[in-house]
């Protein structure tokens, strides 16, 4: 059965690249272009993985992680943060908030697919 992934990324070109790459790998993808849209989709659907951009309009990826981790029926969903903010302190903040993984931009599509497969194979 195909894994369902939410991609929340406000940069349209990057969002399209990631969606195309993941669809080619057989994933079912929902897209959000800002934090508010992402949060609404999270509340309405069940995802195997949520991929969030750090800097988005309305809610940041960090704010979404914190909100999702407070929802009893969603708090165990796997979450990955994508960010150009790649300082060690940024990574630590994201992981402490509850993300399962932090990936710095820029990244290769293959690197992303490999990391997603690794995250989804963990129990």
Automatic annotation (TrEMBL):
<dbReference type="GO" id="GO:0000160">
    <property type="term" value="P:phosphorelay signal transduction system"/>
</dbReference>
<dbReference type="InterPro" id="IPR001789">
    <property type="entry name" value="Sig_transdc_resp-reg_receiver"/>
</dbReference>
<dbReference type="Pfam" id="PF00072">
    <property type="entry name" value="Response_reg"/>
</dbReference>
<feature type="domain" description="Response regulatory">
    <location>
        <begin position="4"/>
        <end position="120"/>
    </location>
</feature>
<keyword id="KW-0597">Phosphoprotein</keyword>
<dbReference type="InterPro" id="IPR011006">
    <property type="entry name" value="CheY-like_superfamily"/>
</dbReference>
<feature type="modified residue" description="4-aspartylphosphate">
    <location>
        <position position="53"/>
    </location>
</feature>
<protein>
    <submittedName>
        <fullName>Response regulator</fullName>
    </submittedName>
</protein>
<dbReference type="InterPro" id="IPR050595">
    <property type="entry name" value="Bact_response_regulator"/>
</dbReference>
């Amino acid at each position: 059965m195909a894994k369902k992934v939410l991609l929340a990324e406000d940069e349209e070109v990057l969002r399209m690249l990631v969606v195309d790459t993941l669809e080619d790998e057989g994933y079912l993808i929902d897209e959000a272009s800002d934090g508010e849209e992402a949060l609404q989709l999270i509340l309405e659907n069940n995802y195997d993985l949520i991929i969030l951009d750090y800097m988005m309009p309305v809610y940041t990826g960090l704010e979404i992680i914190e909100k999702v981790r407070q929802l009893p029926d969603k708090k165990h969903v796997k979450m990955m943060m994508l960010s150009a903010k790649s300082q060690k302190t940024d990574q630590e903040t994201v992981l402490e908030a509850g993300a399962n993984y932090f990936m710095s931009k820029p990244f290769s599509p293959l690197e992303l697919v490999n990391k997603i497969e690794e995250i989804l194979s963990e129990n």
